[in-house]
Amino acid sequence: MRLYGVVAAGGFRRHATYRIATAAGVFTNTVFGFIMAYTYIALWDERPRLGGYDMSEALTYVWLGQALLMTCAMMGGGFEDELMERIRTGDIAVDLYRPADLQLWWLAGDLGRAAFHLLGRGIVPMVLGSLAFDLALPGSYWTWPAFLLSVLLGVVVSFAVRYLVALSAFWLMDGAGAMQIAWLAGLFFSGMLLPLNLFPGLLGEVARMLPWSSLLQVPADVFLGKRTGWGLVEAYAFQAGWALALLTAGRFVQVLATRRVVIQGG
Amino acid sequence: MAEPEGASEVAFEDRSRLVEGVRAYGLIVAMWLRSTMAYRASFAMTALGNFVVTAFDFVTILLMFSHVDALGGYTLPEIALLYGMSATAFGLADLLLGSMDRLGRRVRDGTLDTLLVRPVPVLAQVAADRFALRRLGRITQGLLVLGYALVSLDIAWTPLKVLMIPLMVLSGAAIFGAVFVAGAAFQFVAQDASEVQNAFTYGGTTLLQYPPTIFAKDLVRGVTFVVPLAFVSWLPALYVLGREYPLALPQWAAFLPPVVAGACWALAGLAWRAGLRAYRSTGS
To answer: Are the C-beta atoms of residues A34 and B206 closer than 8 Å to each other?
Structure first.
């Protein structure tokens, strides 16, 4: 267990090295936050209480989206490039001989990365957003840890999806296509572009059932106090259920994939 | 060299360098096209992906319009015109110069040095590097939305308004192109700040997809007078639609995009030269 702690700390430190890139990312998140906030204001001006959110809740949703974009890696950008490269070049054979579990190893590193991005790219845009707009911040102190737990579960779900995508490189060689599809789904079905509550009819029902809603929609609803009591338990169960199912699927695919690995002596 | 011949010689040299640059750009692009087409299935998939990812932007607007009839006082076809213009212009710039944002990585890993020693303009090499034909997906999507807007809008067409459409797309692409070059020049200084560029390019095109009425005055001022993105689509499109301009600008402002594009390229060119001159290799 200590080993994975060290790996997670390494993931955190590694991303913390890129200070200018982080500052640049904060700038971009803030610009997008402003643009989206104004479009949401126009929308909620026409239809107050759309999707069950009032104006300041809708604006809070925008800035939560910017804060969690990198944390939950909705557009990718975590470990998957590197893992795919190792599969393609065959370096993965070395990893398989290490006395550590492959999936847990990458999960630990990704949790470290997510923690850094939450602090490095989440807090500043959120603070700037709250200075420029009237945001609905939690009324109760308990909402903060409840929100963080939901974010943690969201990161694990995100990791589990991306791990499956990365493993597809064992069969596809060039996993760029699979990664792009996952990236698209993550962006659209997480609720990043528009809250899933606003998706009409069947599309909305399906979107809210898919794993990606764990990445933004569920944590945002926890933050906004839409999920309390049993509703909160249900939200956790939804996220944890997807996390478990996808991690198990990843483990299964990993076993299948490693059977394909032929190590050339030399 | 104070003689007038000297001056004309310099002008001639500048010109031949431009021709040489365009030629080199073409050759490198052709090379990347050949390599892309070696994996046709992968190309088809990524082009489709590029189409879909940009289409999601418009799907978002469609989803918004499933709840409202107008956004900021604009109907769906009117917003589709703004969207189609901005997306097509940006798509063109992204196709031709979208690889410029890799410059920071080249500075960091030292591969820029390889480009410096080749007898070909560096700008042409950086711009053509990894030319991605899949970006046609974005242009296709922009053109489709633009087509929808032109079909469903009820506009009293005049020759000037008709001329405005292609003029707007080309100057808009040039303005975005200048932003790409200026952004790359900035990366000579701030090596891993390519995301700042995204704020102006991707952020800019997202902003232009919505009517100016929904944004705060200061933001509109910023994208009109500081980074003149308003000339890409807002002003010319509002002329076509017969709508009121933001900031009470005069009517002829809609005809400025080619001038603004020229000015942007002059500034971007200066920035690029300054950046290249200031470049110090990492030595790796």
So the answer is: no
